[in-house]
Amino acid sequence: MERPRVFISYSQDSDEHKAWVLKLATDLRSHGVDAILDQVDLRLGQDLRFFMEHGLSSSALVLCVCSGKYVEKVNAGTGGAGYEGMIMTQSLLKNANMDYIIPIIRNNQTSQRTPLSFGSKAYIDFSNDDLYYVKYRELLERIYGEDAKKKPPLGKNPFSKELGQAIKTKTQIESVLYHSPAMDGHVAFRFDNNNGVYSIGTGEYQFDTRWSRSGNDSIHAYGLIGFRHDFDSYPPFEDVLLFDFSSRSRTVHKGQIVIFENNYSHFAAVKIGTVKSSSHGFPYDEMEFDYHIYSVE
What we know:
With 297 residues, the protein is an alpha/beta fold. Helix 3 runs parallel beside helix 5 and helix 4 packs across helix 5. The chain is built from 7 helices and 15 strands. Helix 1 links the parallel strand 1 and strand 2.
């Protein structure tokens, strides 16, 4: 609401109390709240009951200044406060509008802070003048609905299948970051992600290369692999037989060649490039390699 309309219900306990209510109404109007108050809106010759009925029915909210005398009058149904209390109670019962009334505590030292008909409504306590600004801001936020905006957003159930499916979908989409389908290529990737796996090639010529941390410019390779420390370039296909395939893990250094065999008995040669290790001063684990997939049958 840009111009929220509120009706101020109170009892004229004293000149001091009336002045305080007038200040509250004036402050509210200065901040865009169309505060309706008998001291400024009730004209000579107007019907008092019509003014109260119209003010209550045409307002989005009612601010009830619950002094001790106001609570007493509303409970007893006497005076203007008692009449307004009766109208408000009927509105609460008829429309079930439980947020219609905002009780404001002022000059009330009794144990009955609000009228009985209001039930157990939460109220704003303006009893301490030193806290006027704090309470006034709280009231203004409530009128404009700004208080509701401070409520933390409701997240997803961390145990729901929906969240699990979203994570699964996200992981599947992100798998493109760890696959190069070309038969020859250059790769740079963080091997601390995706379980250290990077796929090269496609179909029967796909190889899921797997790596783990060793040190700077060295890396552990895993799988059906062949290795010779004296090869620093891709060997001719017929020389792949010269590599040692007896181990499923090898430590390979920058510039060296490792041969991967896949489940279709195809082979790929991988030449290690730069390797950065988080255990040796780098922020994360990253490696580069060049590869060639042999298409010879």
